[in-house]
Amino acid sequence: MTTAAVARAARVLHAGGLVAFPTETVYGLGADASSTVALARLYAVKRRPVDHPVIVHLGDPDQLDAWGRDISDDARLLAVSCWPGPLTIVVRRNERRVSDAVTGGRDTVGLRVPDQPLALDLLREFDGGIAAPSANRFGHVSPTTAAHVRADLADDVDAILDGGPCAVGVESTIVDCSGDRARVLRQGGITLARLAGVLGREIHEAGDGEGPDAPGRLAAHYRPRARVVVVGHSEAAIAAAEDLLVGGARTGLLAPAPLPADLPSGLEIVGAPADAEEYARVLYRCLREADDRALDVLIAVPPAPGGIGAAVGDRLRRAAAN
User: Fold this and answer.
1) How far apart are CA 297 and CA 103, in angstroms?
2) How far apart are alpha carbons 153 and 133 in whole angstroms?
3) How far does CA 278 lie from the centroid of its chain?
4) Less Cβ crowding at N or C end of the chain, within 10 Å?
């Protein structure tokens, strides 16, 4: 059933406004993907470079052909198996439907159907594509609650749909299916193992700078104000913390549980997630908490790199980049 809030949000989109809404990954800042005026405002509010493409969210997997062209067998397999879900599929764009304002002038477009009831209600009520990067200023920490959106964007967004905390917590996996062979442009909520199971073969990750431009591939991204230092294990974290605390830096630790018993005095525990899935759910909340606590440095120990742990490690490395 369509709620009054969803109906109002759809009207805001039709009028060229901006709506923040939850997905299973992070909150998105949505605009009518067919309106160049709305898209211009979206880029301005995000402070996003206009040549950096945005993902178009759809309400049904059957809309793949309406927004793309020359759809490959890999793209169709992935859409059937993983939509709705945290997967963005990059295909050749349908020029009649997708403007340069969405793609930054490129011939490809990223499409996805989110697996979140409120997002799907909005997409179906709106009955069109919603261009939606994360609902924060460009390059900063992504939001996983409506409160994060309000803190970042305030009155720059016309409506916010509150769907509670995001279930996955890191952005969608992006797979480029615009060429002869599918490849991963960004790891995220769908694991490489799941993709390989769908396609019946191993799928490789493109290096930075390879393949079409896609969201979240800049070397420095997802950054809090606190300096992030990534180390490989808890012993290295203790050594780094001792040096920083001696130097007078207010220092925090984000590391998988169980934490060592001999942590230095004065080290603030920001998070100790029990597994990689929990680490992904709390990652952006913890990065924001580091700023809320006015930490100078956050030392982060990534989870094991298998499964969604690879996406968490990727986000931490980009948060730590200069």
Assistant:
1) 36
2) 13
3) 16
4) N
pLDDT tens column, 244-296: 999 999 999 999 999 998 899 999 999 999 999 999 999 999 999 999 999 99
Task: Please name every residue paired with 269 in a beta bridge, in sequence order, or none if there are none.
Answer: 253
Residue 311's SS3 state is helix
DSSP state of 232: S
CA distance 39 to 212: 20
**Residue-range domains of the chain with CATH:** 4-199 (3.90.870.10), 227-320 (3.40.50.11030)
Q: Do 239 and 272 meet the contact criterion of CB atoms below 8 Å apart?
A: no
User: Can you tell me the distance from the alpha carbon of 103 to that of 316, in angstroms, rounded to the nearest whole number?
Assistant: 26
Amino acid identity of 179? G
Place of tokens 């020029």: 95
The DSSP secondary-structure symbol of 233 reads S
Q: What are 23's two structure tokens?
A: 């997905």
Angle between helix axes 117-126 and 4-14 (nearest 10 degrees) is 50
Listed in order, strand segments (DSSP E) in the chain are: 19-21, 28-32, 56-57, 68-69, 87-93, 108-112, 130-131, 159-160, 173-176, 183-186, 227-230, 251-254, 268-271, 297-300
Beta-carbon contacts of residue 193 (< 8 Å; ≥ 6 apart): 307
pLDDT in tens, 57-95: 999 999 999 999 999 999 999 999 999 999 999 999 999
The reported pTM is 0.94
CA dist., res. 151 & res. 319, Å (int): 19
CB neighbours of 210 closer than 8 A, spacing ≥ 6? none
